[in-house]
Each structure stands twice: as structure tokens, then as C-alpha cells.
């Protein structure tokens, strides 16, 4: 399955540059966590302060609820998420107590 999620960044060029530096060296524990939860590919794109994450998952292994539960049990992932929140802001449409918000697919070439 492929998911697309959105999140905003603090509108500060220095913080955005630091956020990007962190993502050039994502902690191994974070990458291991994602893979263990069934994430097979993950990319993050930025336009200004808007981030878009494209995440591909193993349908038999992945669920958002299971990933959130595993995150709560993983101190390294919790530290990463806390550190990243310094740079991040919810979009105007983000559900309360969430960070990344799932986007609604509206078009796919080849779908009829």
C-alpha cells in the first residue's frame, strides 16, 4: 500500500536546514523501527514549509495503530520524534494529537 502524509515545518530557514541535516543521518533505530513495522520505502519531500511523506508498506504487516504502539515502546524513536517536533508544526487540517496527517488520494493515472 502507498500512503501520502503531510506535515508543516516552522517557518525559519535555519531550523529547516537543521531538519534536513537530521534527515541525511536518520538514526538507525528509527529506520529499524520503520522496517519492523512493515514500511518498505519512505520518502519525504519539501516545498517551502510543507512536507509530504510518501510511504510504501507491506499490506500483511503494516498498520498505523501497530506502528504507533511500537513507537510508544521504543525510547529511541520517542527521542527522535521529540527532537523533530522542534522543527515541525501540524498543518491546519491535522487531527488533534497527531503529527503527520494522511492525505486523501484524488487522482491516479490509469484508474478509470
TrEMBL record:
InterPro entries (UniProt xref): Carb_Metab_Mutarotase, Dimeric_a/b-barrel, Rham/fucose_mutarotase
Pfam families reported in the protein's UniProt record: rhaM
Protein name: L-rhamnose mutarotase
Origin organism lineage: Bacteria, Pseudomonadati, Pseudomonadota, Gammaproteobacteria, Oceanospirillales
Amino acid at each position: 500500500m502507498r500512503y501520502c502524509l503531510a506535515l508543516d515545518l516552522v517557518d525559519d530557514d535555519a531550523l529547516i536546514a537543521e531538519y534536513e541535516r537530521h534527515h541525511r543521518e536518520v538514526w538507525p533505530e528509527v529506520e529499524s523501527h520503520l522496517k519492523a513495522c512493515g514500511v518498505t520505502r519512505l520518502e519525504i519531500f519539501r516545498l517551502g514549509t510543507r512536507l509530504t511523506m510518501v510511504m510504501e508498506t507491506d499490506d500483511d504487516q503494516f498498520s498505523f495503530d501497530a506502528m504507533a504502539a511500537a513507537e510508544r515502546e521504543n525510547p529511541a524513536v520517542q527521542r527522535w520524534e521529540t527532537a523533530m517536533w522542534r522543527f515541525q508544526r501540524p498543518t491546519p487540517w491535522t487531527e488533534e494529537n497527531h503529527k503527520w496527517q494522511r492525505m486523501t488520494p484524488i487522482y491516479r493515472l490509469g484508474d478509470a
